[in-house]
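--- STAGE predict ---
source: upstream dedup step, 1 unique chain passed
mode: sequence only
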Amino acid sequence: MTEDEFVLDTPRLRAFVGHVRMAIDEASSPEAACDAIRPRFAELLSDPDWLPGEYRADAPDSGMGGGIGQWLLYRAGDGSLSLFSLVIPPAAETPVHDHLAWGLVRLYRGTQDEEIYARRNGALELVERRALEPGDFYALIPPTDDIHRVRTTSAETSVSIHLLTNDTGCIWRHAFDPDSGEERPFRSGYVNVACEEDE
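--- STAGE serialize ---
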């Protein structure tokens, strides 16, 4: 794939992606880029009708398990950026996993608990737990914030929007056993778009 792919192709999303690319090019660090992107990201997601219903649906056969759906909205042709919705049914949770990229996440619907882990002496240590409400942001910046698990705590399905600097659904990452720290290869995939080697 060499061309950018707008699965959700709207003028508003194209303008947002243009802003994101400019912010990344001009930023001195991932932290600075996240700070520059955050206001436009918040503006985009403030519209309750911005995300069509099909991208808020759970997915019983997804790579994440538990009915969790990862829906691609946009990805760069060179694999340097992706935007997707992560849909987690009530009481479901992701595996403990990494992303191998930096970026921003904002909760769009429902409520979640996020558990953040760090590698310490060959094991995983739970270092922080956060309760998330709609509108809350968090940054994923390796190596300190890249390993986490997310659980829906609301009676309704939760939806978070992820903007990350890789093709997150199609790269091989890691899932972890939180007790032993053992890692295994992990690829979440997208519900609505195949990865190249799967086509």
